[in-house]
Amino acid sequence: MNYLLISKELRSIAEKIEAEERISEEDALNLYRSKDLNAIGMIANAMRERRNGNYASYIHNRYINYSNVCVLSCQFCAFAAKKRDAHAFEYAIDEIVRVVSEALPLGITEVHMVGGLHPTLKKDWYLELLRRVRALDPDLHIKAFTAIEVRHFAQRIFRMPIRDTLELLREHGLGSITGGGAEIFDPVVRDTICHGKETAAEGLEVHRTWHQMGGRSTCTMLYGHVETLAHRVDHLRQLRQLQDETGGFTGFVPFAFEPQTTILAHIKPASAIEQLRNVAVSRIYLDNIDHLTAYWVSMGLPLAQISLSYGVDDLHGTILEEKIFHMAGATTPQQQTVAALEHAIREAGREPVQRDSHYGHLTPRQKRSTATPAPADAELACA
Ligand code: SF4
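^ thats the input. predicted complex w/ iron/sulfur cluster below
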């Protein structure tokens, strides 16, 4: 690292990273408060290149939001609906199976399924969903359900302990759980933006249990709403602590809040500088999580591409159809092609590599066809 390019107040942090020492919460706060974005990026980049070389990965995946019907009404969420609402949707298993089977020849290696906390879908519905998607292709990785969905199943639907619920889901095809729903862990922030949602401890306990069962998951943070910088650091601290304990997180995926169509629409969206600073600080602080993903759906592909020099080593996936951020007002495309992701990575001076759901690099033999996704006819129709 060229210390001459790093402002005096950040040099001790740069020295710690060079010496492979862990930074403190106070250091993380100082990084968040610093205006020296390029220096923060340089420190994050040093850490990223030491860990992941010049590679930048992506996954060929298909998103499916099976329903937006939810018993909660989180203030930041424009996705959820009550059954009576005009924008409520709920897909039949046949429809989901059809869409996944149409995506398989395109080369997807993962299907990613999350939904609202549905009040009436039964245990058998979820198990049949997993079983039938699994039956389409035993090599397709099913990444599904947030920690809060798992708790909802366990407490209100399956009426079983968390561990037994996860075991049952795994027996029927679940490959990994998603990191969504973490928002910001601070209880006061949670009470403001997602009153009634699980606590940080409850969400982390689902991940802990899954990790203890040998499972892997990703972790997230939704920032840029009512939280302070100290709340972000506290959130990262709790993730780093659980990772020290279990080692089960494969990657971290921060999301900037999309306020446009939510009841928090008065909040200004996170700027490009804020988003770059956030990924860079996350990379530097989370020294025990191997991968950092730029979620292009919220960042936009151009900024996600730039973030490859600010600590990020993964551009997430092709996705094929995203609803949660787009219903909140995101104007990014609904999908990316493999060619577009690889082009973005190459243009940023990195070497593209297709990955699996645990960020492992795929060999040419493990890759499937990379045909261009079919746009319109792959849309789901409401059940
Ligand atoms: S964020 Fe999740 S739990 Fe909250 S209202 Fe939206 S769908 Fe429901």
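Residues 229-246 form the longest helix (18 residues).
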